[in-house]
Design brief:
Elements: H1 3-20, H2 24-31, H3 47-51, H4 56-80, H5 83-98, H6 111-121, H7 123-140, H8 143-160, H9 167-180, H10 182-190
Length: 200
């Protein structure tokens, strides 16, 4: 790998991180006059907390935009460079969402951005992960549990569907999902985790 290509990949990562840092949950909350999302419910900037305001449209738009950050970063990087750049872009967009430079590095938990990234990197695995999230959410009505199960199975999905080259980045992002949900895991074990739409 040449020095020039390393510079290119670094710029790809930087641009994707900037895109991932856009806090669409806060943007939607402001557009829909829902107040400061960081002082509502769990204080998280993601779609699940937007839903706690009672505005389903704002939550849906946040979900789509947060997922779109990861997907767009991957697709642009792949079109301009290659799959390696696409993986870097997806990972950087995910980190941008979790640690956004625009709001003091205090971001969301990355679930929607993770799923959007996975859909763009390996779409059959992404669909399987989204279906897993939806199935678990439909049964248990707990967003964090759905995210954890989907993240746990995602590395398996990428291998099953023939995308072994994306297994490493998928494992890393899934591990970060678990790390970001450490408080949720404690509440799940204690039986106190709020259900979807319920105020935290």
């Amino acid at each position: 790998m040449t020095e020039f290509s390393l510079i290119q990949l670094g710029l790809v990562g930087l641009a994707a991180y900037g895109l991932g840092s856009v806090p669409f949950g806060l943007v939607m909350a402001r557009l829909f006059k829902l107040g400061d999302l960081r002082s509502i419910g769990s204080g998280n900037i993601g779609a699940t907390n937007v839903l706690r305001t009672g505005n389903k449209l704002a939550a849906f738009l946040t979900l789509c935009l947060d997922a779109g950050k990861g997907a767009i970063a991957v697709l642009i990087a792949r079109a301009l460079f290659d799959d390696k750049a696409a993986q870097i872009a997806g990972g950087a967009a995910f980190l941008g969402h979790c640690f956004p430079i625009f709001i003091g590095f205090k971001g969301g938990k990355g679930v929607a951005t993770f799923l959007g990234t996975l859909l763009a990197l390996a779409w059959p695995a992404g669909i399987a992960a989204c279906a897993t999230w939806a199935l678990v959410a439909g049964i248990f009505r707990i967003s964090s549990l759905s995210a954890l199960v989907a993240a746990l199975l995602s590395p398996v999905f990428v291998v099953i569907f023939g995308y072994p080259n994306t297994a490493l980045v998928t494992v890393i992002l899934a591990a970060l999902i678990f790390n970001r949900h450490h408080a949720n895991i404690k509440r799940l074990l204690a039986g106190t985790e709020p259900k979807i739409g319920q105020k935290s």
